[in-house]
Design goal:
There is one protein chain. The protein is built from 4 helices and 11 strands. The longest helix has 23 residues, at about 210-230. Strand 10 and strand 11 form a beta hairpin. It is an alpha+beta fold. Strands 1, 2, 3, 4, 5, 6, 7, 8, 9, 10 and 11 form an 11-stranded antiparallel sheet that branches. The chain has one domain (about 25-205).
Length: about 230
Amino acid sequence: MSKFISSLVFVVCGFCAATSAWASPTLLYEFQLRQMRCVTIDSGADCGEGQPSRLQGLTIGLDAASVSGGTASLSIKSEPFGLGPWVNNGFVSLRLGDYASPGTGGSQPLDPSAYFSEETGGRKFQLDADLSVAEWLSGSLYTNNDTSELVMSTDKAFVLGRANDPYSLAVFDTSGPREWTGFSRSDEHITSIYVFSGEWRLVEEVPEPGTFALLVAALAGVLVAVKRRTTR
């Protein structure tokens, strides 16, 4: 009887631990582009449909437990002389493609050492994000890696405030509280900018890595308890 009770206790503890781990997954959001077009800087004329690929594959990973209050924020500033203020409230991962630093593409590590290195003389990079978290993200995001700039928000006034150019009038209006508007520009295309709109949508909940191990342990405990019970 004592063996059965000890097995039962093991099962209950494993189940509770697994449930706790599962309750704090990573919430993965992906930016889904709605429209995009190219605008010529000197005249404001339309120069095409833009390059949608530049805004594809953008993702933000948030820790569910940390953002339970409904907000998340991230602030990174790196200069050649050192790393500036670093604030991370709820962010787990970040993938901003051409606008990310260090490097380009991939899911960037949210580690201060990755954004400044004495060996390379440091990197000039700035990112500020303030988000309201639900099934859809709202808020604002600004990043500048010294060669390209990305400005986006559910508040058009925020975007216009970052533009400071006549062609900012080309920025799309937002049709609802969860639609983002913005623009991107880079040294690669110095005569034009790309204006766009879209939404940050929750696409996946990723369990913590230890969750599966805990569930396996709990299942093993159940099997042991059942086996001992049936052999008595």
